[in-house]
Amino acid sequence: MIDATVLVIDDDDDILLSARLFLKQHFSQVITCKSPKEINVLLSRNEVDIILLDMNYQKGASDGREGIYWLEHILSIDKDYVVILMTAYGNVELAVQAIKKGATDFILKPWENEKLFATLSAASRLRQSNKKVKKLERIHSSLQKDINRQFENIVGNSEPIKHLQNTLIKVAPTDANVLILGENGTGKQVFAYELHKLSHRKNQIFMHVDLGSLNENLFESELFGYAKGAFTDAKDDKPGRFEMAEGGTIFLDEIGNLSMPLQAKLLSVIQNRTVNRLGESKERKINVRLITATNMPLNEMVSKGTFRQDLLFRINTVELLLPGLAQRGDDILLLAGHFLNTFSTKYHKSILDFEPKAEAMLLTYHWPGNVRELQHVVERAVIMSDSLKIGVNDLQLSPQKFGSSTPIQSDMGLEEMEKLMVQKAIDKHKGNISRAAADLGLTRAALYRRIEKFDL
């Protein structure tokens, strides 16, 4: 029994009875009607999968014009309806013309039951396929809308961000492979999506693959797909992420986590621009834009023999180095304001701004978790705050992260707080200027200037 609804339209009672008696043995629901004028009502009340449509209804008519008219009417309601025409032997040429206008197939009257069943079975499979495609299109459209909401334009006016934005404008229209480097939480995925949005592939899929969370045993099947029977649970053919991203952009996050054998397999795909599904020898061409990212030092890994140099050459035609949040100056307040607006709307709060002392704390904190940490801090503050402005206590920034028990006081001035942070970083690293500077997101020279300024 095929789970599908068949609508049969014919002005001959004998034809309708014959079709109903036979088809109800094979299809879950069979609906019959004598007049095509009932089509609108029947389609509005039933989820019809296949429409079996006669081509002539008026007495003595044989030119098939009515069938063509109702075919066009049905397809104007939904172009994905599967319509099969019923015609006499003399109308075969007309039926072929109707197929050119959108009919799926035609059968001859009087029909043979086996041929009728075969034709309707194939039509049912086509209808199910069309449904899946439409569902995937809706999901894709919804996902793209969600992505557009999640990754708005890059927020920031600092020099490092302006430089990166200028680079994005130059690189995005090309198909050059881009490697994005940066600490966790610096926004690598945001920059990858911005590259996609500015490219000629912007209307196609943006496929994000987190290689860090991908089980090594599933790497090939997930990225390259598999054929039916390739392994125990492979009950159907399945395309991999590269195939699903066809025409669009594939973003391989945490590429530094790949083992050497998996690096070799990925290199082969990038070089040849083809994939082989597990369990089959057929090569499938792929057309994707490749963007990769990692927080790991790939050049050092190459020197140590843990990352392939030829793979590094392939993925970093252009390299983007994202700064830590502490290196972005007043961008911290821009981002904090952006998150404040976002979460105030989300949680139905009327929080307008940050208190000056809270802003000072945001600027002097060293943000080990970068933008992601700032986002979480502001979200938590919005949830917990009962006032119109976010205060120091709402931020809940832990002083223990700086290796000192000296508390951050809400009545401290900006310079006092900055001095305290610098002192904490130096104490934490026992006078090692390089490590203290890195912890603060500063250069050694910038840290020395602050040491001199605060007479530390």
TrEMBL record:
Q: Where is the Response regulatory domain?
A: 5-124
Q: Which Pfam families match?
A: AAA_lid_14, HTH_8, Response_reg, Sigma54_activat
Question: Has the keyword Ion transport been applied to this entry?
Answer: no
Kindly state which keywords UniProt assigns to this record, in alphabetical order: ATP-binding, DNA-binding, Nucleotide-binding, Phosphoprotein, Transcription, Transcription regulation
Q: Which residues carry this modification: 4-aspartylphosphate?
A: D54
Which PANTHER family does this UniProt record tie to the protein?
Answer: ALGINATE BIOSYNTHESIS TRANSCRIPTIONAL REGULATORY PROTEIN ALGB, TRANSCRIPTIONAL REGULATORY PROTEIN
- Tell me the protein's name: Sigma-54 dependent transcriptional regulator
Q: What is the lineage of its organism?
A: Bacteria, Pseudomonadati, Bacteroidota, Sphingobacteriia, Sphingobacteriales
